[in-house]
User: Fold these one by one.
Assistant:
Number 1:
Amino acid sequence: MKKLSGRRGLCGLFLMMAFWCGCTASPFAAPPPLSVAAAQHTLDAWNPGYCKVAEFYGFYQPESSNTRVAYVSIVNPSDKAQKAAVYYAATFQLLSRTDGRQQWFLTGVITHSSGILTKRQGWDNLMVPVQEAPPAEVEKKS
């Protein structure tokens, strides 16, 4: 049997170590999906005293495949007068955790300005992990 050395030996050693350690995940694996139910549940849960999704219009995917922007109208559930809903763009970003898993996070909720002199307001410093809605909650909304 011929002794492996140089590049072949290092490559073989690397492949054996990867096999033994269970490192079979590809860095090019498809990102986890971001569902409408998970996005809406996260928006409803991060600040329940102020934020309740009235209508979910859909996702927009910018050039970055690691970002999704959800367009929603939000009402304040604690407001007794129930003013009109405000339109927001909620930004979700796919981030890598320390253990290598990828997870979606809500990173910002910003209003759409409707005129020249209006300011965009909201929260742009969030780091809320996205979690799927419990099955009972999904059934209630259906």
Note: Residues 36-141 form one domain.
Number 2:
Amino acid sequence: MPDRKQLERWLFSEETGHDDAAEAEFAQLLTGLPRVEPGADFVQRTVTDVWRMRARRRRILALGWAATIILVVAGAVTAYFASPPLATSVIKALAFASGRSVPWLVAYTTVAMDWWWTLARVGGAVAAALTTPARLVAIVGVELVGILAFFALQRIAGAERLGDAHV
């Protein structure tokens, strides 16, 4: 066990800023401490618990695989023996559902496509009206003026941040 004087010398070296002396005092202080080692009883209990957990994990894994194999085999056997009676009812249910839903699906698709064709015709008419040479020049001119305004606004805002704005 380290004595109190060693501890005080180390603390004094730390407080005064003598780093090399503080390191040496600290190393000497730590060498005087007793080694901490686990007892034989602790080691035995820990090893026993680890082996139990390992055996438990292996049992759970083996039981999981066994349960998976049993479920797959049971599902396959059930499907094999139950498929002839169930096949007719499943086919009838699918035919009934598709017979009721397919006509509605075709009708809704037809209506949706009619709307899309109408929108395409309207868009084409608007585009044809706007793409005359005079209107095209006007639209491009307005766009260029807008871009110029945004550029000027950005330059003014940037100069204002830097303190160079003179308005």
Note: The two ends are 79 Å apart (CA to CA).
